[in-house]
Amino acid sequence: MNKSVSLSALVIAASVSTNTFAQGSGTTQTTQLEPIIVSAGISPVAADEYGRSHTVITRDDIEERGYATVQEALEAQPGISMNGDAPSNRQIRIRGGEGSHTLILIDGVRAAAGDSEYIFRGLDTSYIERIEILRGPQSVPYGTDASTGVINIVTQQADTGFNAGAAVEIGEGDAESAYIAYGDTKTQVTLNISNRYDRGFDYSGDGGESDSSRWQSITTKGSFNLTRRLDTGFTYRIADVAYDLDENADGFGGRPSSDNESDYVFDDPSESSEALERAGSGYIEYRPHDQITSHRVSFNRTSNQSDTVTDDVTEVASYRLQYSADRVAVAKSRQLLSLLVERKTDRGGADLPDRQTDSVAVEYTGWLADDWSAQVGVRHDFNESFSDVVSWNVASSYFLANDIRLHASGGRAIVNPSFFEFTGGTSRAFNADLEPEENQGFDIGVEVPLSGLSGSVGVTYFKETLTNEISSDDLSAPFTYENDEGESDREGVELAASIAVNPSLDLRGNYTYLDATNADGSIEVRRPRNELSLGLTWRARQIPVTINGDLRHVRGLYDTQFWEPTPRPTEELPSFTTVDLSGQLDVLPGLTLTGRVTNLTDEENKEVWGYATRGRAGFVGVRASW
């Protein structure tokens, strides 16, 4: 095995669970696969080379499985838990970490601003090319907030020539999207527009008004080859979000109090909120004549506004140097050294001082032997507001003679206290003694190709330890946050398998077992102990029809019952199983009819105590490209 790894191994190495078989053709086309590149370090890494556990959700996966939003695509992926009190307020956790410990990127730019957590409210998939899930501490390339993993959402790429498309869907609401793209040997430009309205349901479960949401966005990006040695590019997106809410009876802020679950959340037609997300980036990259080095300067800016946040801003300016130690072109190097120099500035509102962090990181990515790759990195953050910290990553991938891939990784990552935690909801440093949280962990796994079944099976064991975990028991301002003493442990196992039974039928399955506890030994809430997903994709032989089904089972999910008096108990929610069904019919080349049903069995699938969840919902649509 060498860096031009066999295509069957690339299928396995692409992720713990990625199904990389060609879609819609009626045949398995492993001989036509291109190596998958993941944004997994200071420099991008080929999937077969990357030693960390990861998943890539492709555009084919999104279309075949009927994923309407990014949060739907992320549900039940190995190591991932997504939940919240409403579709417009969902958190993502990787391997039992906090929601603020997962860094969300869109085209490499931070989706959240001001050192805060990103909340999923309806991020549309109509313009998504792929979604990369990177598990484990990732601070070396990404800095703070990448403590337990990174989700990088890559938007649509331009093909050769002019291309355009549109899609419409109706059902429990409506969705419209359109794109136009142009590409040639020197230029690639795309523009995407989308609108998604969800009629919603009554979050209180009292039979009141439906709580709706609307997501509207414009996304564009481009890259330009100015000369043989000089490239430049940009990205920009703006998203406008409006959503309804219901109120809870927790007795604070003038609200009523309740002593039972049925009265805890009540219908309130007057409750609503809005948010505005803006993010952009620009870069310029220079390669000398020999191309053994590459110099890239970039600037990213993210600005988020909402009813509760006036204007959070994050700006990142960076310089990246790549050096090919084996003296070939950087793009072909088997021994790549990278240097990153970065300045990150966070703003959390007009009354708070800016935070500035200057960072230096170095990373090695390469092949130690024909079958053995490694990535090693270290980063030093010079924090203006907190103590300086050092984070590190190490990962390795090794191929046995029969294409079995062994992989292992470890690392240390840091999450700084958020502005809200630091101030406690006031305009001053109410919790000035807070220290950054530190996560340290490792994983080890094996991925085995099932050559006789055209598939793969993988298993990964992970263990992570969080120290200085920040927590609060307050329910009204000013909030007192403290660093917990002791260690919060999270360990578990991720299993995944995919099998092409025949050219018409693919089967897949994921399972995650997680044991996550607080420093005092109590169970961590909103992190299911057991999560299972099973899926199949069937393609008709005589007609261009594809049917997809996905089952998700959740057991061992705990949450706090806030209507109870202090100390409020943490109790297990009822286990649930949901089934989603989708299908598509290729009417003509470039014209596809689509349909999907979510929660086919109308199962009650409660994720948070007191809040209702959506029942069965159906949608039909059409997708066209030319």
From TrEMBL:
A Pfam match: TonB_dep_Rec_b-barrel
Keywords (A to Z) from UniProt: Cell outer membrane, Membrane, Receptor, Signal, TonB box, Transmembrane, Transmembrane beta strand, Transport
Residue span of region Disordered: 252-272
Signal sequence, renumbered to the chain: 1-22
Coiled-coil boundaries: none
PROSITE patterns: TONB_DEPENDENT_REC_3
Key word Flavoprotein present: no
InterPro entries xrefs: Beta-barrel_TonB, Beta-barrel_TonB_sf, Plug_dom, Plug_dom_sf, TonB-dep_rcpt-like
Its membrane topology: Multi-pass membrane protein
Domain of life: Bacteria
CDD domains, per the entry: ligand_gated_channel
Residue ranges of every copy of the TonB-dependent receptor-like beta-barrel domain listed in the record: 192-600
Cellular localisation: Cell outer membrane
Keyword Signal (UniProt): yes
Chain ranges of the TonB-dependent receptor plug domain: 51-150
Biased composition range(s): Acidic residues: 260-271
Family membership: Belongs to the TonB-dependent receptor family. Hemoglobin/haptoglobin binding protein subfamily.
Protein's name in the database: TonB-dependent receptor
Organism: Spiribacter pallidus
